Amino acid sequence: MEHRILGASGLKVPVLSLGTGTFGGSGDFFKGFGSVDAKDATRMVDLCLEAGVTMFDSADVYSGGVAEELLGKALAGRRQQALISTKATFRTGKGPNDTGSSRHHLLESVDRALTRLGTDYIDLFQLHGFDALTPVEEVLSTLDGLVRAGKIRYLGCSNFSGWHLMKSLAVSEARGYQRYVAHQAYYSLVGREFEWELMPLGLDQRVGTVVWSPLGWGRLTGKLRRGQPMPEVTRLQNKVTASGGPQVADELLFRVVDALDEVAKETGKTVAQIALNWVTSRPGVASVIMGARTEEQLRANLGAIGWSLSDAQRARLDAASAVPMTYPYWHQAQFTERNPFPVK
How many domains does the chain have? Predict the structure, then answer.
């Protein structure tokens, strides 16, 4: 298993991580992901550790905390073999302070996560989203204190815009707080807006990217084909789950799938393996979170690494997935001598 340095830290993370969004399957939203029970969750963790996939990503809102509980049980007795990544910020209760990144909510969220996970520290703790109502200084001073207390080892954020992330890094530098070394972001062949600002920002500021939903919310598994009905088993069949994820135009989706099919014939790999491999090769990507409903899916996803696409194949996929940029990115892209695309 290839390992990469996570941003401006000394932590090495596996290029593939396992997401636990399928663990539990509680609530309308997460039912669409899957309902992996304790036995199957432990089996998936077993397979990952055997393959060198040692980082496991969760969040307090995944099935209302059940995902963290199942992950903790699966890692019981072998906690030291794994890196645990989890998140907080989204609403976890009905009270006025049961959401956001206030000191009140973060301190409670971390303590509850530690209990559910059955551990006394979290390797990578990430804010699940930006809280515009809480001063950035309050957020970062709280996270800094949690690192100094030993409850968290590294900090990250998720779903931030460019200015959210840059403002946070500037405050950390000015105040001497622990800084974000990771940004968990959506990035796939059918969702490349990440490249316009967040990718160059991450490279410039040494913030490693941890990619979520590299298969475009289940669209690039190989099950969706032009002119064919949607398969019965997919998160896209659940209206609540489908509406809560990235939206993709059919024209773009099937153009990308057609290109993936061509590369699949040339390489002998599956559509999903090629889509995952493409993301792992992108500039600034430290780890790619894969999900799985079944052991079969997990084994297939593990086959996404250990080989490389050719330059011609990557170029074909890049061309098929390209979309018009919004302002100011289309304007900046005209001046490549000053704004070159990051090259890995």
Answer: 1
Distance CA 65, CA 46 (A): 21
Q: Among positive and negative, which fits the CA dihedral 87, 89, 90, 92? A: positive
For 43-74, write each residue's pLDDT tens digit.
999 999 999 999 999 999 999 999 999 999 99
Q: Rounded distance, CA 23 to CA 7, Å? A: 28
Give the phi and the psi of residue 23 in degrees, each rounded to 5: -75, 125
pLDDT of 90 higher than 80:
yes
The answer to whether residue 172 sits within a structural domain is: yes
Residue of 62, 177, 180, 187 marked catalytic:
62
Question: pLDDT tens digits for 104-114?
Answer: 999 999 999 99
Q: Would you call 186 a catalytic residue per the annotation?
A: no
Q: 271: number of CA atoms within 13 Å, CB side? A: 20
- Identify the CATH number of the domain in which residue 140 sits: 3.20.20.100
- Average pLDDT over the chain, rounded to whole? 94
